Amino acid sequence: MSRLRWVTAGESHGPELTAVLEGIPAGLRLLASDVNEDLARRQRGYGRGGRMKIETDAVLFAGGVRNGETLGSPIALTVKNRDYANWTTRMAPEPLAEEPEPVTRPRPGHADLAGGLKYNRKDLRDVLERASARETAARVAVGGVCKALLRSIGIDVFAHVVSIGDVIATAHESIELQALRASARSSDLACADANAEAKMREAIHAAAHAGDTLGGVFEVIATGVMPGLGSHVMWDRKLDGRLAQALMSIQAIKGVEIGLGFGAAGVRGSQVHDAIFYDEQRHQFSRPTNRAGGLEGGITNGEPVVVRGAMKPIATLKKALASVDVRSKQAYEAAHERSDICAVAAASVVGEAMVAVVLADAVLEKFAGDSLTELIRNVEGYNKQLMEY
Ligand code: EPS
């Protein structure tokens, strides 16, 4: 079923992040700059911590790409951690004569305690290094390749921030998708609503001064998606389920909605479902609304795919919560590491990447193709079939 296989490896303060992506057809034009733009967007946003001043994330294609085109072989991607230079001893793969200062006071809300118990590690750094959202840089690199594939068949994926803390943006409700995309791109917080963005900055500033953190909601929109990706026939083929899993797997995401999402549960059916019309000129079905978020029965219906992710506030708090030392079992405040105050804008870029991976996988499942030429021919054949339906 799944046509794309990928894994990431690497710790937050290790030498580099590595990803291997297999299943991308040969002949896709691919430049590091395609991916680097997204990596740079993931780094920005008011509320990011000191680490982002150290890093300048850039991808190296260590396999699968030659002279600006994919070869059909596994694509190996690496992103260096510049900060590793400050961690060479503590993160050394070789044994040390003396144990480095361990992390023993788990942060409530982070993977520290659960991971420490599961993997039997009493230096919680052994857990937090991999649980860290630094790993999302590798996901964004993989997503960048998938976005290039999707672009070649007319699918665009973008994201914008809907809320941070209790500040909710509304401007996106009344603007065209292209304008929404452009405004979100030009905003430091990936928010298309300038008034809300100013209030979001104030809220982040206030949280930082209080030693606290803030979460929020981002929305990912995919345009140009043909009807027929995913399937209603089996639970694990349903595209809504696959998107939800992908978004939920992003660090700190606690909720996912598609279309109206939770809002659909509280109103009548006539206010939820999207009426069907037929456009004679364009030989295609049309919908005056898109409350379904482009998915019905786990299948894309030709409308833009709209999914949202809710991010909890970051677990590393200056104003630390109560915790217990895992070695002495004494009560302490949780450990504090340099961290972000708010990373919702960054998470929106990661959301974009994860949606791109799921859509690219679904495209390859439906249209296959060892080369891009073959894939495009198959898509065109299907488009012809849709016109004749
Ligand atoms: C980072 C995400 C956050 C940052 C990390 C870089 O990870 P975490 O989920 O562990 O809070 O804190 O930076 C550091 C660990 C650091 O040394 O500042 C990212 O998205 O790149």
Structural class by helix and strand composition: alpha+beta
State the major sheet.
5 strands, antiparallel
Put simply, the count of helices is: 10
Distance between the termini: 26 Å
- Mean pLDDT comes to 97
Element pattern in H and E: EEHHEEEEHHHEEHHEHEEEEEEEEHH
The quaternary structure here is single chain
CATH architecture: 4-Layer Sandwich
How many beta-strand runs? 17
Structure description:
There is one protein chain. By secondary structure, the chain is α+β, with helices and mostly antiparallel strands. It has a single domain, classed as Chorismate synthase AroC (Chorismate synthase, AroC fold, 4-Layer Sandwich), CATH 3.60.150. The chain has ten helices and 17 strands. The protein has helices at residues 32-43, 51-54, 112-119, 125-131, 136-151, 177-186, 194-209, 239-248, 344-367, 372-387, and strands at residues 5-9, 16-22, 59-63, 65-66, 69-70, 75-80, 156-164, 167-168, 216-223, 253-258, 277-279, 284-286, 295-296, 299-300, 305-311, 322-324, 331-333. The protein has a five-stranded antiparallel sheet with strand order 8-7-9-15-10. A four-stranded antiparallel sheet has the order 1-2-6-3. Strands 4-5 form a two-stranded antiparallel sheet. Helix 5 crosses helix 9 (344-367). The longest helix is centred in the last third of the chain and has 24 residues, at 344-367. The structure holds ligand EPS. Ligand EPS binds at residues 12, 49-51, 83, 132-134, 136-137, 251, 314, 316, 338-340, 346.
